[in-house]
Amino acid sequence: MSRDDYTEIGGSEEAFLTTHWSIVEGVAMADEASSRALIESLLNDYWKPVYCYLRRKGYTNEEAKDLTQGFFHEVVLERHLVEKADPAKGRFRSFLLMALNRYLANVRKRDERQRRAPRGTLVPLEMVERRHILGVLEQVGGKRGRAADILEIDRKTLYRKLARWGFEETEET
Question: Does residue 90 lie within any of the structural domains?
Fold first, then answer.
């Protein structure tokens, strides 16, 4: 992480500190106001280490900030991650990093799905097929046998499709 990418957000501590399980367990047992205060304390302690972890993984300054905010908002707060932590399963920071890596994988999958989706309105494949077949029929003057040859499909397949779309089944050669 270069000095020109440095951020003051989240304090100065870049390393993961040891978390006392009593704080984590206190979140589940405390009343709502106390629970919020404990979660806020954990967020303050972990924002910068999570951000720095993401920078070390190669994310840009802004990407790391966005991912850190998204992780704490979507996973830690909305999914109540702190209440799911179990001291019998290891350190809190390991639990947090595992959840962060899962979040990153989900974000990556979501981004890939968005890139693969075509821009604009999706058109059903059958509608595209129908337009193509009717366009070829128009080019050949309605001669279905010739259209089937151009489309490289069996004539019976063409006739079935046309019948399904409400066209007569008589062959015009």
Answer: yes
Q: H-helix or E-strand containing 71? A: none
Query: If you ran DSSP here, which 8-state letter would residue 117 be given?
Result: S
CB count in 10 Å sphere of residue 136: 18
Torsion of Cα atoms, 85 then 86 then 90 then 96, to 10°:
0
Terminal CA-to-CA distance of the chain, rounded, Å?
72
Instruction: Give the integer Cα–Cα distance in Å for 160 and 23.
Output: 69
Tally of residues, the chain? 173
The predicted-structure confidence for 131-147, as pLDDT tens digits, reads as follows 999 999 999 999 999 99
Asked whether residue 33 is assigned to any structural domain, the reply reads: yes
Q: Which residue has the higher pLDDT, 79 or 155?
A: 155
In tens, the pLDDT along 97-112 reads: 999 999 999 999 998 8
Q: Which two tokens stand for residue 46?
A: 């972990």
Domain count, the chain: 2
Give the structural domain span for 150.
125-164
